[in-house]
Amino acid sequence: YELKHFVIPDHYTDDVDKLLIPHGVVIDRIEKLAREITRNYSDRLVVCCVLKGGHQFFADLVSCMKKLPNREGKSLPIDHDFIRVKSYENTASTGNVQISMTEEELCNLEGRDVLIVEDIIDTGRTMEALVALLKKYKLRSVKVASLFVKRTPLSNGFYPDYVGFSIPDTFVIGYCLDYNDVFRDLDHVCSISSVGIKKYMSKNKTPS
Length: 208
Ligand code: 5GP
Ligand code: MG
Ligand code: MG
What we know:
Elements: E1 16-21, H1 23-38, E2 45-51, H2 55-65, E3 78-89, E4 92-100, H3 103-107, E5 113-121, H4 125-135, E6 141-150, E7 162-167, E8 172-173, E9 189-192, H5 194-199
Parallel strand pairs: 2-3, 2-5, 5-6, 6-7
Antiparallel strand pairs: 1-9, 3-4, 8-9
The structure holds guanosine-5'-monophosphate and magnesium ion (MG) (2 copies).
Subcellular location: Cytoplasm
Organism: Smittium megazygosporum
Domain Phosphoribosyltransferase: 27-179
């Protein structure tokens, strides 16, 4: 897509390299995903948002699901849950996955159908660690919806139950996906320019 045909906030004009997926296309894809997901459930579902990157996908997905029929053609009751997971520094996974969920929060999921909503899967380590943790708590079912899956040779083979887009092996920003917490307020999914990479480089970069 030609950048000049789309609205990019003034504060990011020099920081964006390519526009990969326009916001409207992301929204269209989520509407279709919401149909597929909603009709696979019949009982009250816990939709668990992986913060911070998954927040916009969660909001748009749940807002569609609320209007759609479940397996029995009825409305599906949806509970909301939020967890914080962190593994990235600059544009690379650190391999050290930190999951913020208390023992009590985990125990509350026993017997429930849970759908994890994640922004993007790269190596798969984050989701593998999270699903492995949840499986210890006797949930009725655990499924993962990820807006993006990256085609990378570093994949550990983890593949989500629902995927929005399969994307090339580049670091993407926008639609709540960040680079060191910047660019979440960009609607379109883009790659970063070298200017942007330098401008928002983390000062406390961990050696790898
Ligand atoms: P994984 O554990 O699969 O290697 O990485 C998953 C997490 O890393 C994602 O939830 C996301 O927060 C972050 N991540 C991976 N690739 C990208 C990317 O291209 N852009 C952004 N903004 N975050 C990414
Ligand atoms: Mg994430
Ligand atoms: Mg991030």
